[in-house]
Amino acid sequence: MGSGSVSNPEREYHLEVDLANQQDLEILVNILQKLDIWVKTFQNSVYIKEGEEISKFLALIGAGKAVMQFEDIRIQKEMRGKVNRLVNCETANLNKTINASIQQIAAIKKLQETGEFQRLDNHLKEIAILRLENPDMSLIELGKLLKEPVGKSGVNYRLKKIMEIAEMSPLVPGLNGESKVK
Lower CB density within 10 Å: C or N end of the chain? Predict the structure, then answer.
């Protein structure tokens, strides 16, 4: 009464069954919906684009071996996707840390060049020196190295304060390369 195909699940999820007429299509759609398999239709074809729904359909028609192969590929594909998302997230976090560190170091060096560094209070000097010595460390790691350890927000507050002082300091070039004179 019909013929169908399943595309390679490594590329996309697509199962399609072509039927001889509209009446057969309606019968098949009604049966599948009663079995909680949700399909879409186009002309005299039934198609499924969701991996889980394709697995249910294959199991329904008795294609157990195909279900196992399909699910194996689906699991591998999902795992690769999760790994890629984690790597992308970690890369973005590292880039954010590095960019912030570069700006912080630039502000500290400018304060040193103008003699403003010596006017900083001891807490700001301590974190500034640690940042210069450890440009690739996270805020949490820097906080643990302080004489009196503080958390991420405490370190962030101190480094932002240093950057604000550098921005407001007379004769200190701006962090974007422009000269600022007050």
Answer: C
The pTM score is 0.57
Give the CA diameter of the chain. Answer: 88
CB 159 within 8 A of CB 104: yes
Q: What are the tens digits of pLDDT across the range 87-118?
A: 999 999 889 889 999 999 999 999 999 999 99
- Cα separation values, 38 from 17, 21, 163, 172, 175, Å: 13, 20, 57, 65, 57
Region label for 174, one of left (φ > 0), alpha (ψ between -120 and 50) or beta (otherwise): beta
For 58-63, the CB contacts below 8 A with 24+ separation are 58/6, 58/15, 60/32, 60/35
